[in-house]
Amino acid sequence: MPNSLIAARDRFAARHSEQRMVVNGREWGYVEAGRSGPALLLIPGTLGRGDIFWQQIEALEGRARIVAVTYPASGGIVEWAGDLADLCGRLGLERVTVLGSSLGGYLAQFFAAAYPHSAERLIAANTLHSVAGIAERPPYSSDLDHAPIGELRAGFGRGLGVWRDTHPEQAELVDLLLAEVGGRIPEPELRARLKALKQGPELPPLDLPRERIATIESADDPLIPPLMREAVRARLNPSVAYRFEWGGHFPYVARPELYTSLLEEQLGLSTTHESWGDGELRAR
Questions:
Q1: In the chain, what are the domain boundaries?
Q2: In degrees, to the nearest 5, what angle opens at C-alpha 187 toward C-alphas 157 and 165?
Q3: InterPro entries annotated for this entry (predicted)?
Q4: What is the DSSP code (8-state) at residue 117?
Q5: What residues are paired with 283 via a beta bridge?
Q6: Which CATH superfamily is domain 4-130+199-283 in?
Q7: Phi, psi at residue 125, to the nearest 5°?
Q8: Global pTM value
Q9: Contact 138, 145 (CB under 8 A)
Q10: How high is the pLDDT of residue 112?
């Protein structure tokens, strides 16, 4: 059977082609949508290009100005944060709500701390608070410059295969992610993403009022364990902590309408999608 998620993503990509911009010597990809409304910067995790947020972009592009980025093939957290500040300036986005997921959540935290003049609001999603000890854990424990790319991709495949076995209802999501890691994300970009966390800096202090900070987590996230989720909340002290009772590490794909509703809330837009109910937690 055709994969409906991949088909929907591909239809979106055909309408919203990824543009390219060289910033400080690094070539970024980005999808730009919407002409007016609050500015939203979306940063994916290791296994996504900017268009992995296609469902949120389609739902919000008539009411917000959105830029979703794809990482370059070089650089790391510090360089990327500066690049994003410059990219936003070139696109005429003076202040943005920045949402990053996983690797993107770590970068979003660094960006908001280092460039507070560019960050209107921070949403740190399914992410970590520190890179301490990450170099000892696969795949980061590999020689990321020289390990065969097939090995690295196979490691992701094994993890995704376990998720498919335990969550067969998300098989289409797993296939979409396997396509990303299998080649839609080129080798140099994939290596750069892994090295960005392995060699990442500790996060600097964040000087944003807590009413402009939110976190997102999933109770069944296989990559961000409960103690790490608690540490992210403790560090950021968010005014709102959203928790998906299910959705894994990619709730923006697995539960798009609910994810869009929290973005609407954070951007101050009227909600047109599924509302948060008793089965989910929104803590203030």
A1: 4-130+199-283
A2: 10
A3: AB_hydrolase_1, AB_hydrolase_fold, Maspardin
A4: T
A5: 241
A6: Alpha/Beta hydrolase fold, catalytic domain (3.40.50.1820)
A7: -120, 130
A8: 0.97
A9: no
A10: 98
